[in-house]
Amino acid sequence: DIQMTQSPSSLSASVGDRVTITCRASQSISTYLNWYQQKPGKAPKLLIYVASNLQSGVPSRFSGSGSGTDFTLTISSLQPEDFATYYCQQSYITPQTFGQGTKVEVK
Amino acid sequence: VQLVQSGAEVKKPGESLKISCKGSGYSFTSHWVGWVRQMPGKGLEWMGIIYPSDSDTRYSPSFQGQVTISADKSISTAYLQWSSLKASDSAMYYCARQYIANGGNLDYWGQGTLVTVSS
């Protein structure tokens, strides 16, 4: 299985901060990397697909980059509704593994 | 596009269970449907996917032999089934549509089905 490792596991930030979350794959996955946001008690929501493509309806403050094994999710200016847990997922090969999650908390 | 899952279940260890995920608003037979487990307070775990058109199914090794994924294309419904539940199966289970044309992301999700297994 491909292992997906996110860092950090949690972070504290303030509204307006620039936030960066990284995801590393244990082997190359080209750009088959997706990012999801999950709020408590809710289903995950797709934010970014194929590493850098913004899902329809997702605010442009979210962006993704990377290829191969190293990927980044950036929130350019954190908003109150962005406090949540974020997961990366590789869809390069089955089993399509998720990272362990990064919880973004209020500073 | 909507995926609507069956309601919460409370079962005893050893019992069987089948939960469902009904798709609407798109061609159900043209997209894979995946299942994802989330244990209490934990992260997301990819369990497996099924292509409803021909029931081609892929499992994570972690779940192979522990669950069965199936689909009935005539009613646009995918299923996740256990033959003998364990307490460790207590979790939230999500189904999601996999959009292969966009790199295989999970673009639409069901609301989740909470399964509680307790004696």
Distance between the termini of chain B: 38 Å
Largest interface chains and counts: A-B, 26 and 27 residues
User: Can you count the helices of chain A?
Assistant: 0
User: What is the ordering of alpha helices and beta strands of chain B?
Assistant: EEEEEEEEEEE
Portion in beta strands of chain B: over 45%
Rough shape of chain B? Answer: globular
Sheet with most strands of chain B: 7 strands, mixed
The radius of gyration over CA of chain A amounts to 13 Å
Q: Give the uncertain stretches of chain A in residue-range form.
A: none
Given helix and strand content, the structural type of chain A is: mainly beta
Quaternary structure of the protein? heterodimer
Share of helix among residues of chain A? Answer: under 10%
Features:
heterodimer, A: 107 residues, mainly beta, four-stranded antiparallel beta sheet, globular, B: 119 residues, seven-stranded mixed beta sheet, 54% strand
Task: Give an overview in words.
The complex is a heterodimer of chains A (107) and B (119). Chain A is an all-beta fold and 107 residues long. Chain A is 0% helix and 48% strand. In chain A, the strands form 2 sheets. Chain A has a 6-stranded mixed β-sheet with strand order 2-10-9-4-5-6, with no helix packed on it. A 4-stranded antiparallel β-sheet of chain A has the order 1-3-8-7, with no helix packed on it. In chain A, a hairpin with a 3-residue loop joins strand 5 and strand 6. The N and C termini of chain A lie far apart (35 Å). The model of chain A has no long low-confidence stretch (mean pLDDT 97). With 119 residues, chain B is mainly beta. Helices cover 0% and strands 54% of the residues of chain B. Chain B is built from no helices and 11 strands. In chain B, strands 2, 4, 5, 6, 9, 10 and 11 form a 7-stranded mixed β-sheet that branches. Chain B starts with a strand and ends with a strand. At the A-B interface, strand 4 and strand 5 of A face strand 5, strand 9 and strand 10 of B.
